[in-house]
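One thing: can you check what follows?
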Amino acid sequence: MASPLRAVLVDADGVLQFTAPAWRDDVAQTVGHAEVSRHPRLLDEIAKAEGPGTMTGETDLEHSLTRVLDRHDVDLEPADVIDAWHNIELHADVVEGVRALRGRGLVLALTTNQNAPRAAWMHENLPYDEVFDAHFYSCEIGLAKPDPAYFTHVLEALGLAPGEALFLDDTAANVEAAAGLGIHAELFARDGGRAELDRILAAHRLA
């Protein structure tokens, strides 16, 4: 007999929030359009500075950005670039839909890959403390999706069997890794909004 669901694990980017399309413009304005014109690959290299190591806390994002800026002889502090990177907007209707699950007695957990500065910004500026019972930022636990160890850590921390958790994520590799452990894992259409959330919840009789 299948275990009843006790928890919903929710990804952040692409599900609850999205980076506004203008983020590259914001970074370019911070760096300086003249510098961007002088170094056509600069913005791409800035984006790539957020490598896998920054997600697990093994690599310092400011250090990675400093190397990029120094390589192109750009006189700018990495913290200024990071600030421009925090152009996050919420899917407010999805956040409210998730919050409503509290009324069903479900444990709600935020399960997201983030670098340390972005995680700190999210802690301070987004309403997730009011929505979720637990937060699993990859940079804080030293593990990142789709590593199965990430999901094992979450399950153990919450005292859950795999079949007691529903996981929502917009990245197929993450969903496949979770499903491989026996978690009820659903691929969330990226930025699909409330209609996508309602579709998944209805499939699990949570609507």
Observations:
- Residues 7 and 170 are 18 Å apart (CA to CA).
- The chain has two domains: 7-19+88-203, 23-85.
